[in-house]
Amino acid sequence: MKIEPQQFSRQGLHILFDAACIERPAAEFFEPDYWRAQNALLGMAQGRAAACIFRYRERVFVLRHYRRGGLMAKFSDDYYLWSGLANTRAWREWHLLADMYRQGLPVPRPVAARVRRHGLLYSADLVTSCLPGVTPLADVLMRQPLPQAQWQSIGTIVKRFHQAGIYHADLNARNILLNEDGQVFVIDFDKGEKRAPDSSWQQANLARLRRSLDKFKQQHTQFYFDEQVWRYMLAGYDK
Ligand SMILES: Nc1ncnc2c1ncn2[C@@H]1O[C@H](COP(=O)(O)OP(=O)(O)O)[C@@H](O)[C@H]1O
Ligand SMILES: [Mg+2]
User: What CATH class does 135-238 carry?
Assistant: First the structure.
């Protein structure tokens, strides 16, 4: 089913959605409280901010409110400086996801984005379709080691993104998801962008993933990551 982007605006409210997937959404489509009241809330997933998983007409979607990361979460940590709709976090990520999804890269299908402008600032939300049966790589590694072939396939997938010129601003062990069949997905393209393939940013992406894995290993008594499996990952990447 082809993605059909449609958008509309009224009084500082801007909504972008895939008309092939949902009907024109109202503002409440982006409110966790609305889905809770409908008894459609299925759960929350941990990230920088909680992502809300809800059911909508036999489908399952994930709703995320854009929030700045870090420990210094302040009152206004979900406001960003307005510099045009096309530059908002939600618009950029929605279109980048659509682009990657059309290319067959393993990312969630974008569903809808909302931007609310408040003068010089805006806040934003993104809805994607929920990838079924996935677990963040970090959580898997706290429970069990992964076979060599799985590490290689992670490397191969990261390479596919890089060959497509997709820069991920936060490639870490929570933004790589695995399903029960060992399929690898990448999420969270906030601040990601298309770039000319170049080894300097590609190596920086890999280094960030490595740091994330090292950090989990430091923080958890059981975490199945070491030099050997990193070499398997690189072998998949360099294949
Ligand atoms: N499309 C999706 N399908 C399944 N789970 C998702 C999806 N999008 C996000 N998640 C879950 O929600 C968590 C947070 O989402 P993410 O996009 O990484 O936002 P952030 O880290 O900025 O809060 C992820 O770690 C993942 O567990
Ligand atoms: Mg994340």
Answer: mainly alpha
